[in-house]
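hey so u asked for the seq, here:
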Amino acid sequence: MSDQKELKALQAALAAEHAAVYGYGVVGGRIGADRRIEARSAYDAHRARRDALVREVRDLGGMPVPAAPGYALPFPVPDSAAAVRLAAELEDRVAGVYSDLVRATGGERRRSAAGALREAAVRAVRWNGESVAFPGLAERAATASASPAPKA
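ran it, structure tokens below
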């Protein structure tokens, strides 16, 4: 695998994790008490993945992409039901980026990316109660939501 291709995919995954950490901050502020532990667990998992990606980018000689001060949400999140939808959307988007990382890498990095993809897909199912045959694939994303991706 080309180091540049891997670096680009790692940076995209890092950017997605920054957005997920931000998004889970919103989720945590709106989620009902019955799902707060689940939201905190997901938040912690994304922070850990983000930190690991920072190290991997540096290992390849790159400068880790910084987090934006804020991210546009795909829809308003006024209540717990919307927070649950946002959490599912965050996981779907992260799964998509990790599927790209799986394609761009090999060896241990590919195994790690596949594990992150699997974890995001499982969390998405837990949040929305629905699953897809191949989580993270662009073909599915094109038919899922017309919402714009979180951006700075």
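Confidence is low (pLDDT under 50) at residues 138-152. The chain is about 70% helix and 0% strand.
lmk if thats what u needed
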